[in-house]
Design brief:
- By secondary structure, the chain is an alpha/beta fold.
- It has 4 domains: 134 residues, Resolvase, N-terminal catalytic domain (Rossmann fold), CATH 3.40.50.1390; 124 residues, Hect, E3 ligase catalytic domain fold (Alpha-Beta Complex); 125 residues, no CATH class; 61 residues.
- A 4-stranded parallel β-sheet has the order 2-1-3-4, with helices on both faces. The chain has a 3-stranded mixed β-sheet with strand order 11-15-16. A 3-stranded antiparallel β-sheet has the order 12-13-14.
- Helix 7 packs antiparallel against helix 13, helix 8 packs across helix 9 and helix 11 packs antiparallel against helix 15.
- The chain binds zinc ion.
- Zinc ion (ZN) binds next to loops.
Length: 488
């Protein structure tokens, strides 16, 4: 018994543009299948699917059948119903032929000859070209609209309201205030995304959609979205195929990629933060992602870079020793760096930096103030800033006093505690050989604490075959120019 698969497909636009109805295609295919002498006909149909993708449920069913059962004919109305991409057409064609099945198009005389292949390829190329042309036209439309300053959609972003009359974004003052709070937790307190989300949730601040619970990914997206520095990018992501992602197995899923810069369209919107704050947020986000991927047992992990090729260097070990090695592997001549050597060198440097009166003096840290006082002062300043922001939110009626009370009390407590420690520090300071005391303390730290100290000081460590360069910044809590005015 001869068996035929008939495959038909329409996308939503096709129906409008070409009048290719599904029923039409199926009828013509059945007619053709009968002409070919098929006795059993199997229908494989995709309705509302773009021809850009291989992963369509109907096509997948057909391809599986061809592999597992004896099918004599694969019948399709037109090559562009099969696929719109040349590469895909060729893949499917090969697959069909390999399994001894005959590929038949109703309105295209396909013969498995070199001429046939050429025509077939050309048709594929043209289908692809048309698709590209449509994309171009869409982009042009978007650009034109953007040039006139209008939005093409409501981005529904926290911190902004959409003004339908003018088709533009305006700042939502209360939400913008919350955004500032988030930004300062992230930059000044080095709070992670989940911690920020928890704090927002516990303060009873609703999300844009009115939900009570904040997600860490929402916070991450907000901190890394250029919208807040006034740039709304359209066409940033390549979404082709994303719609069908749910039909794909995990390893076949379409990865979301970004369009190149010149494919994107920029719309200027009012900024909530400055470019430089945004830049700092991005840097901090990069740092967090690097450090979170770093290996637990390596003190310098996430901070070490190869001086020869600028790649990152990661921890590795053989049976005897641990090393840092360039991630370019054998493509880079950088020798393995024994971790003991590197870690001792850097740690000694860190101790020297923190104990060196000249370095501290060079930063204009007043003689009377040791590192710890600076830390306390900075924390106090942050506490007071947060207190102010909270009060501001309550006054504007955005957060109720009840909801924020717990947080307010804890901030207030912290401020009090810090004030007390500051006072005791400054009464102690006369007889305090502070730099000496500091370095003894550093020597007895646990691995985790050492890692924290190194991470707070070292920006990056660049490795050359016979020396290391440590790029360090004394953190804002020590650097005088960023230091809050004393005596507050
Ligand atoms: Zn390298």
């Amino acid at each position: 018994m001869k068996r035929a698969i008939i495959y038909a497909r329409v996308s939503t636009e096709d129906q409008a543009q070409h009048g290719y109805s599904l029923v039409d295609q199926i009828d013509k295919c059945i007619l053709r299948a009968k002409e070919e002498g098929a006795e059993k006909i199997i229908h494989c149909v995709d309705e509302g699917f773009s021809g850009d993708l291989l992963a369509r449920p109907g096509l997948t069913k057909a391809r599986n059948l061809i592999k597992t059962a004896t099918i004599n004919f694969f019948i399709c109305f037109d090559p562009d119903r099969l696929a719109r991409k040349l590469a895909h057409q060729l893949i499917i064609t090969d697959e069909i032929e390999k399994h001894g099945c005959k590929l038949v198009f109703v309105n295209f005389n396909w013969q498995n000859t070199s001429e046939g292949r050429l025509f077939y390829s050309l048709r594929g190329a043209i289908a692809e070209f048309e698709k590209e042309k449509i994309r171009e036209r869409t982009m042009r439309g978007l650009r034109q609209k953007a040039l006139q300053g209008g939005l093409t959609h409501n981005p529904d972003a926290y911190g902004y309201d959409y003004n339908q009359a003018t088709n533009s974004l305006i700042i939502n003052e209360r939400e913008a205030e919350v955004y500032h709070l988030i930004s300062s937790w992230f930059l000044d307190e080095s709070l992670g995304y989940s911690a920020i989300a928890r704090r927002l949730t516990s303060m009873g601040i609703p999300t844009k959609r009115g939900a009570k619970r904040w997600a860490a990914t929402t916070v991450l997206r907000m901190l890394s979205n250029p919208l807040y520095k006034g740039e709304l990018w359209l066409q940033r992501y390549d979404t082709v195929g994303k719609k069908n992602n749910k039909y794909l197995s995990p390893d076949e899923k379409v990865k979301v990629t970004e369009h190149p810069k010149d494919h994107r369209v920029l719309i200027k919107v009012p900024a909530i933060i400055t470019s430089s704050t945004f830049h700092k947020q991005l840097q901090q986000a990069k740092r967090i992602s690097r450090l979170s991927k770093s290996r637990a047992n390596y003190l310098l992990s996430g901070l070490v870079f190869c001086g020869l090729c600028e790649s990152a260097m990661t921890g590795t070990r053989n049976s005897h020793n641990a090393y840092y090695r360039c991630t370019k592997g054998k493509h880079c001549p950088q020798p393995y760096l024994p971790s003991k050597v590197a870690e001792n060198a850097i740690w000694n440097e860190v101790i020297a930096m923190l104990s060196n009166k000249q370095i501290l003096d060079g930063l204009n840290v007043s003689d009377a103030e040791c590192y710890e006082v600076q830390v306390l002062r900075r924390q106090l300043y942050e506490g007071e800033k947060e207190y102010e922001r909270l009060i501001n939110l309550i006054q504007r009626g955005y957060v109720s006093l009840d909801d924020a009370e717990e947080r307010l009390t804890s901030v207030k407590d912290r401020i009090n505690r810090l004030n007390i420690s500051l006072q005791s520090q400054s009464t102690k300071k006369e007889q305090d050989p502070k730099t000496f005391q500091l370095s003894t303390k550093l020597k007895s730290l646990s691995f985790k604490s050492k890692q924290r100290v190194v991470r707070s000081l070292a920006e990056r460590i660049v490795v050359f075959p016979d020396y290391l360069v440590l790029y360090a910044s004394i953190p804002p809590l020590v650097a005088a120019n960023n230091c809050p005015p004393s005596g507050t």
